[in-house]
Amino acid sequence: MLLPHHKPLSAADAADISAPSSAAVEFRRVDKYFGPHQVIHKVDFSVASGEVVAICGPSGSGKSTLIRLINQLEVLSGGEILVDGQPTSRLKGKALRRLRTHIGFVFQQFNLYAHLSALENVSLALTRVHSWPNEKARQKAALLLQRVGLADKAGHYPAQLSGGQQQRVAIARALVTDPSLILFDEPTSALDPEMIGEVLQVMQELAHSGITMIVVTHEMSFAREIADRVVFMDGGAILEQADPERFFTAPQHPRAQRFLQKVL
Ligand code: ADP
Ligand code: MG
């Protein structure tokens, strides 16, 4: 089904953008400015629990900003974002830290700590943020490294790992606090082509685990085969949302059609 990018608002909606929501994530008329430049325009967008959403669109269209707003790596300028039904825009201090541990984030550039081993990168949030005892944290981190196929690399430092291995460590790290939602920002864009498959494989397994996933990606094969829904952005707005088959075979918006002609 093709959804309009701006839902019509009733007077009641307009009065209360903080009303409860049953979605895992819900954007309500979200605006984001960088200085005078508006880069996200009144976005309404919602993701159901357990859903896997792929976000695609040209460079500069606002994809990274959109997902960074969810865990407040960027602070919104207007509207509201609800996570598990709770408004998040006013959270501070401990409540904001709690929100963030509830949301995993995987970056294009891995962002591992160079001076820590793979195991220590994964266990860090448990010991630092959640005050787990060292041994318990290491055991959980080892399980997660096993899950991403890196049980034998626990003692390696990032510089001793390939890009694909580093990104799998980053995924294990994002999962260590048992988030119910994980955000990926072009997780394979910095990888050599031969390493993309091993990362997509881990993401595919994750997609079947029931976790909610929002994935900004240029990997159209992932969007088509793994995602439940594809969201197309341009100019800071969502121009089209559809199930993957429909999006790739019969895109409706002219800009989506042009984009697909270039990337497919
Ligand atoms: P995408 O991820 O789709 O390539 P971004 O969300 O990174 O797009 O960027 C959207 C727009 O916001 C672009 O015009 C970009 O230049 C601008 N932008 C992103 N981050 C910042 C920032 N920290 N300061 C100023 N402008 C930014
Ligand atoms: Mg980006």
From TrEMBL:
Coiled coil: none annotated. GO terms for molecular function: ABC-type amino acid transporter activity; ATP binding; ATP hydrolysis activity. Pfam families: ABC_tran. It comes from Sodalis ligni. SUPFAM superfamilies: P-loop containing nucleoside triphosphate hydrolases. The keyword Zinc does not apply. This is Amino acid ABC transporter ATP-binding protein (PAAT family). Belongs to the ABC transporter superfamily. It is found in: Cell inner membrane. CDD domains: ABC_HisP_GlnQ. It comes from the Bacteria. Residues 25-260 form the ABC transporter domain. It is a peripheral membrane protein. Keywords: Amino-acid transport, ATP-binding, Nucleotide-binding, Transport. One of its GO terms (cellular component) is plasma membrane.
